[in-house]
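User: For this week's homework, look closely at the record that follows, marking any run of repeated tokens, and judge whether sequence predicts the tokens.
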Amino acid sequence: MIVRNRIQKDESGVIIWKDLLTPQDMRKTEQKAFEAGMPSILLMEHAAMKVVDVLEKELGGDCAGKDVVFLCGTGNNGGDGLAAARLFQMRGGWPEIWLSGDPKTPDAKTNLQMALACGIKVLNLAGLPREEWPFSEGYSPDKRRDGYVDALLGIGMKGEPDEITSSMILVPYHDFGDCTVIAVDVPSGMDALTGDCPGTYMHADVTVTFHAAKPGLYLSQDREAVGRIEVADIGLSAWDCIRGMDEEKELDIQITTPEHLMYLSPRALDAHKGDFGRILIYAGSMGMAGAAAMCAKAAIAAGAGLTTICCPKEIIPILQALVPNAMCLDIEEAVKNPPAYDVLAVGCGLSQKEGVWGNILKLYNPEKPSVWDADALNLLAKHPMKLGENAVITPHPGEAARLLDMTPDQVLEDPISSARMLQEKYGCCVLLKGDVSIACGISRATHRPRYELNALGTPALAKGGSGDALAGILAVLVHLRGVHTGSVALASAWHGMAGIVGESKFGQRELTTLQLIDCLHEAEQWGKREIPPPACWKE
């Protein structure tokens, strides 16, 4: 899913990451344009035109003779739908409008009047008894529709939809066969900020969102309900009044692109291993040596100069065989005389046995970068402490719940707030892992929270060992690029893109962590545009 405006570029003009806008920031943007003289009804017309452009494409490139129902709410989102129905008719389509109630905004009222003047059939369900709704119990459509446009609830939606709206959301599921569903700005019933869906919600084939994508489109627990994201330029970008609004934004939030990997710089010709970091990994236990091996292998593949594994003495022979490029130290000896390091990575397969927490504290130096994963996080939840700005924690929702004394469902209801709470409680940079991961830290330029979302990934990564590899990659990148949201998001993107390459080569079920690590180079080439994207990648 690629956002096509609100972009940031590097010095060569390559798109590295792209802005997202919260509902509040989108309203501020629109208001500034209105104050500068842009008519609000013109903005609605532009939005409707973009919706019909996408609808026409999804209908095979021609609206003529196609039967589409426009499900419209009472606000400006419904107004977009009303305008779109009129424009669809102008292209030869056969629109029908179903209203959840009387329009409440001036622009929506105007567009309803224009639709009626054009002879479009309009059905206001609020004025009908329930038994006369065209989708009452036992409803079967009189004919197959070619598509539906969901303009019921916009980005200002909070809470569960009301009874009429909930019933209308379900209408496309009663159709005779597959039909196209286009959501306007956000699927109705989905929170545009958090992605939370507390009640009934629409499942769209395409979501046409305006000016910039909204965070909830990526953070929803049902990302398939969003469908393909199309970001439509509705003319706001041309208004000078909305430029330079970063200081006024509710959230400083971006999403990564494959080109984020342009930040992986080539090595100098006179480089030596000391230039690329001494990574100390405290990981592994009897029965979990593989976790330490995957972390170390990924660190080496990501470019670590020297990699050392501290571990229980009894698994050293296993690790020496699995990772011959890494050195191994008995943890009992290491804590007596801690080895020098540039970055400490702790937690992978470590166990929570007595003495492990004490060992972590003996190795941990708050003045040095550190990456905390897996069992280190579970132990941190039992011994909460501020880790400092040089540390990165990498919890999945279950670990985040333990760290915050919440439930996983509570973490996922508002993952942005959860990431922020983790950052505040532990005083460090955070990577809240998921199918879309959230990097959160404090910007050293603005001293405000900064968020970067990474949606580059695949279900092929949903197996043991993936997180261990990510910890190793991250340890290298925070040494090379510093501890901040950019380097954390870069590690997440590289890891996810290697997964996509691996899925293409080995299969979504079959990909192993060793194969994933072997795909890091091709992922880098893809990000730097040296090779085409994998066959399974869809923009």
